[in-house]
Amino acid sequence: MPFHRTRPTSRWRKAVLRACVVGVVLGAVVVAAANAVVVSRTSDRVTTDPDDLDRVQVAIVPGSRVRDDGSLGRVVAERVEAATALYRDGTVDKVLVSGDNGTATYNEPDAMRDAVLAAGVPAEDVFTDYAGFSTWHTMRRAKEIFEVETAVVVTQGTYVARAVDLGLAAGIDIQGYAIGDGGRWGRELLARVRGLGEAIWRPGVTGGPTIPITGDGRASWATPPLSGPTRIPTG
């Protein structure tokens, strides 16, 4: 007896389509609501004008891609340049670079630190966080490991609202200095959903001994600075 595969009925197809539409709408509502919350909670703490910033303990510089040759990618180079300018202007007393050093062959913090040193910031005022695997890790470790009380996070306008919101969730009196547009807005809209969850639930991060931001930054260094100038391409 031949076997005939039963095709889905029209009613079943309509039910599946309806469920898909409802799922898309609910997802869009969640994303929009999360973004509205994050932006509304941080809008009065973000500026593009360094003269609007209050003097604080430290500029927090989140990591981003470092090239294979050790030079900084455009995004993180902009952050480092802006943070060192805040130091020279006396807006911050220290600079904390925080990034990914999850493998032996990839090291954002040391490349960032060497760029800050090359810009003329004294070694004792430069701190490194090797476990800044995400913005939440950076902010919570700034509070718990480096005992930061007041800070300005230096990052692109695309990311600054989420960074400030997570800094507040970590217990830091934090401002955001937006230094241009980092692009990738679609990805950031989704990242704010995750960030809001982190701000609410406050998951654990990599621990370690305390290295007070009021002390000598060299206590946080895992390796000595590279010899020669650090390359910071403009393009």
From TrEMBL:
One Pfam family recorded for the sequence: DUF218
Domain DUF218 residues, every copy: 58-171
Lineage: superkingdom: Bacteria
Annotated spans, Disordered: 212-235
GO cellular component: plasma membrane
Protein name: DUF218 domain-containing protein
Organism: Nocardioides silvaticus
